[in-house]
Amino acid sequence: MKRNLMAGAVAVLAAAAWLGAQGGRPASPPGSSAVEVGGHYDPKAAEPTYLGGKWIEITYGRPILRGRDVFGKPGPDYGKVANPDQPVWRAGANVTTQLKNEVPLIINGKTVAPGTHTMFVDLKPNNWTLIVSNWKAQSRYDPSNKQEIWGAYGYTPDKDVVRAPMKLETTAHAFEQMSWQFVDMTASGGTMALMWERNIATVPFRIGS
Hints:
This protein has one helix and 14 strands. The model is unreliable at about 1-20 (pLDDT under 50).
């Protein structure tokens, strides 16, 4: 744990150095992806007006390839560029990736209650696992804060809400900047998709009641 927290401090300092080197522009900008469900458009409104909707949003840091091979070949060093020293990958950069859902989500047969949760990915060759957790995310790095985590430093599985296998697909084009997206949405659910390099990793979900 101590080694991980020390590594976290180094990572924060490195990020600050990167920020200065970029002339004030972050090397891994913040990003978000959102979808609104359960509502309807008002047919009487003069402008498009969506009523009664509930939001599902993923917020995260967006790392950029910059010529790197971030996952590598199968073996003991698989995924070490994306995630060099944390127990699981934060599925982004800098901050902890968070899922904010105003409706219950059913993932891999388990219900994720409305609220704010953290998300991680357990990286194994051809075997990625999405983790939705009740760990709280730090808004800024604080090594003395043991109740919340920064990135995935200090992550333990005891707060896991659900683990779900991710379907991995290889694309013809390489995504330069990592992105979370919602795809194939219907009234009953959809799919969360993580896209980076030549990988798309997806997990389906249903809207609970």
